[in-house]
C-alpha cells in the first residue's frame, strides 16, 4: 500500500502539469489564429485602439433608437426607466472586403473592433442585458460599414413641472453623447431624422399617452472641449380619468355631504356636529393619501392640492356655519317667542285696520245726519281723530322748522344708506342662516369649480 501512494501522487502531478501546459499554449495563441480566414485577413494589422480615419478628419456615427418599453415614470424621483435598442453605424476603411454579403459576427467579438464611446447623459443607472449572452450585434458590410446594436435598460432623469398635476404635460429627453472624442474626432447624426426613433406609436403606458416626439442635434460644451450630442424629445400627457375617480369625485361628494347639515334642525346638536367633524376628518385623510405618491417639495403647489384645499375650506366652512347659527340662537330670543311676537304684530295690524274702517264708516254717517247731540260730538270727534293720525297721537306742529342745508341732507342720506345696509345684514331669525347657506354654498362651489377647471385646462 505504501508503494501505490507515491505512484498516485506522481500521476496526479503529471496530469496537472499537462493541463497547465495546454492552457499556457492556448493563452499564447494569437487571436487571429482562431478566427475564420475572412476575419483573419480583416484583423491583420488592425488596431482597435485607433479610431477610423485617424489622420483624415472625424468619423461620422449615425444612430437610431427603438423604444421597447417605458416601464415606470416616477414623480417622486423625477425619472423614467426605459428599455431601448441602440443602433450605431459608422464606416471603417480598414474593414473593407470583397463580396456582396455582410458578415454577422458574435457579439463577443466586439472586443476586437473599435466602437464609439457613446453614453447616456442623464442616466442614473443602466445595464446591458446578458441573458443568455450579452445582447450585442456586430455586422460588417463589404464597404466597411459597421452596424453595432445594443439592448439597454436605463433609468434617466427627467425634470418635471408638477404645478398642473394631474393635468400636466411632461417633456422628457434621452441624450446620447461621446465621452472622450470631441467634435474634431467624432460626429453624431440621426440616420433618418425624426423617424430614427420608433416604437412610441405602439407603446402603452399606465398613466400617460405620448403626444409628440422629435429629435435634435446639438453640442455639449465642457472645460475639456466640445462634444457631439444627439437629443430625443418626447412629450407625455397624463391621463386624468384615474384621478377624477380616485380624488376629485370623492372630495366633491364630501363637500355635498357637508351640506346635509343645513337641512337638520339647529336643536339637533349631535347630528350636525357629527356630520361636520366626520367630513372634515375624511377630507384630511383623502388629502394625505393623495400626497403620498408625490414629492414633498415646497416649491410645487399642485393643481390637485388647490382643489383639495378648496373642498376642505367648504367643508370647514359648513362646520363654522353651524357654530355661528347656534351662537345666534343663544344671543337671540327664543324662536317660539319670536314667532309669537310676529303673530302679535300681525294681529295689531289687523286691529288697526278694523278701527280705521269703523272710523271711516262713522264719518260717513255723521255727514248724513243733520244734527248731533252735544254730548255725542266730542266722542265721535275723538273716535275719528285718533285713528286718522298716522302716528297715533302726534299733534300737528304749529310752525315748520328751518330748512337744513344741503350738506346736512347729504350726510343724513349717507347715514340712512349705511343703516339700511347694516339692517340688511342683520339676521332676525337664526334659522335664516341655514336658508341662506342652502343657496350660497352650492352656488359658490359651482362658480369656484368653473374657474378652477377653466384655468387649469385652458391656461
TrEMBL record:
Primary location: membrane
Annotated signal peptide: 1-22
Region of interest called Disordered, as start-end residue ranges on this chain: 360-403
UniProt keyword terms in alphabetical order: Cell membrane, Chloride, Chloride channel, Disulfide bond, Glycoprotein, Ion channel, Ion transport, Membrane, Receptor, Signal, Transmembrane, Transmembrane helix, Transport
Residue span, Neurotransmitter-gated ion-channel transmembrane domain: 247-453
Low complexity bias: start-end ranges: 371-394
GO cellular component terms given for this protein: apical plasma membrane; chloride channel complex
Gene Ontology molecular functions: GABA-A receptor activity; GABA-gated chloride ion channel activity
Subcellular location: Apical cell membrane
Span of domain Neurotransmitter-gated ion-channel ligand-binding: 39-239
Pfam families found in the cross-reference section: Neur_chan_LBD, Neur_chan_memb
Membrane-spanning segments: 240-266, 273-294, 306-330, 439-458
Coiled coil: none
Entries under InterPro entries matching the protein: GABAA/Glycine_rcpt, Neur_chan_lig-bd, Neur_chan_lig-bd_sf, Neur_channel, Neuro-gated_channel_TM_sf, Neuro_actylchol_rec, Neurotrans-gated_channel_TM, Neurotransmitter_ion_chnl_CS
Membrane topology: Multi-pass membrane protein
Reaction catalyzed: chloride(in) = chloride(out)
Subunit structure: Heteropentamer, formed by a combination of alpha (GABRA1-6), beta (GABRB1-3), gamma (GABRG1-3), delta (GABRD), epsilon (GABRE), rho (GABRR1-3), pi (GABRP) and theta (GABRQ) chains, each subunit exhibiting distinct physiological and pharmacological properties.
Protein task: Pi subunit of the heteropentameric ligand-gated chloride channel gated by gamma-aminobutyric acid (GABA). GABA-gated chloride channels, also named GABA(A) receptors (GABAAR), consist of five subunits arranged around a central pore and contain GABA active binding site(s) located at the alpha and beta subunit interfaces. When activated by GABA, GABAARs selectively allow the flow of chloride anions across the cell membrane down their electrochemical gradient. Pi-containing GABAARs are mostly located in peripheral tissues.
Family assignment from sequence similarity: Belongs to the ligand-gated ion channel (TC 1.A.9) family. Gamma-aminobutyric acid receptor (TC 1.A.9.5) subfamily. GABRP sub-subfamily.
Protein name, UniProt field: Gamma-aminobutyric acid receptor subunit pi
Source organism (scientific name): Parambassis ranga (Indian glassy fish)
Lineage: Eukaryota, Metazoa, Chordata, Craniata, Vertebrata
